[in-house]
Amino acid sequence: MLKTKAKYYSLQEKKWQEIEIVIDKKLNFDYSHCSWFAIDGEFTGIYAQRDKDVLWTIASEDNQGNLRVEMLYTYQNDADLSVLKDLLLSDKEKLFWYGVLDLAFLMNRTGVRVSHPVFDVKIASRIVRTYTPEHNIDVLLTSLFSAPSDVTNKKELKLSKEFGIPPQEWSETLHQYNVNDVAYLRPISVRLKEMARYMNREEILNSMHRALPEIAYLNSQGFYRDIFSPSYNDTDMQSGILIPSKR
Asked: How many CB atoms lie within 10 A of CB 154?
C-alpha cells in the first residue's frame, strides 16, 4: 500500500484542501455506508477486448461526508478485484466522466454485467446544457460553481509511459491528474440533475442512463460502431473504434 497527498478544491467552502490518496492492488476503504462512488479508468488503448486497464481511481465519502480517494492498480494482473466487483453489483450510484469506455473495460475485466444506477457526467451535460458545446470538467466547474479556472489544471501526460513503472515512482502530477478525474463528479452530477428537472429533461436523462450499461456491454463485446444504423456493415468493424475522447 502506498499513501500520498493531492489537492482538492472544496466547492462548498471555496478553498483548497489536501486529501490523502491510497494506492494499492486492492481496495481498502469501507463502502458499506456510501450511496455513491465515482470511478475512472486509465488504459493502454481504447479497445476493451484488446487493451489493458492500468488503474481505477475511485472517489467516495467517509462517515463524516468528507471526500476520499483510492486507486486500484491493475496493470500487473495480480490485483484483488473482489471489492470492486461488489461495488459494481451494488445498487450504489456509479458516477463516470465518460462511462461507455470505462464500463466496457470494467465488464471485461471483472466479468460483472454492470447495471443501473449509473450516471455519466459528460453525456448528462450534453443533454442538459444544449446551449454550449463545452462539457469538460473545468468548464462545468467554472460555469456551475464559479470555481477558479485552474481547479483541474489538466496537462497532457505520457500516461502509458509513466503507468509502466511501479506506483511508488509515479509523479505528483500523475496523482493529481487522476484525482481530478473523479473528485468533482458527485457535485456536478447533483447540479446537472437539478437543471434537468428545471428544464423538463429528467426522463430523457434517466432513459439515457438506463441504456448506457447496455451500450457499454455491446462495446465490451466488440460492437463499437452504430449497429442500429441502416447503413451499418459488419466489415466496418475492421476499420476501428468510434469512441469520442474521454478528456
From this structure: 15
The domain locations on the chain are 2-223
pTM of the model: 0.88
- With vertex at residue 150, the alpha carbon angle to CA 146 and CA 151, rounded to the nearest 5 degrees, is 70
Query: In terms of CATH architecture, what is 2-223?
Result: 2-Layer Sandwich (3.30)
Q: Could you read off the pLDDT of 126-140 as tens digits, one per residue?
A: 999 999 999 999 999
- Measured CA to CA, the distance from residue 43 to residue 53 in angstroms comes to 4
pLDDT digit string (tens) for 74-91?
Answer: 988 899 999 999 999 999
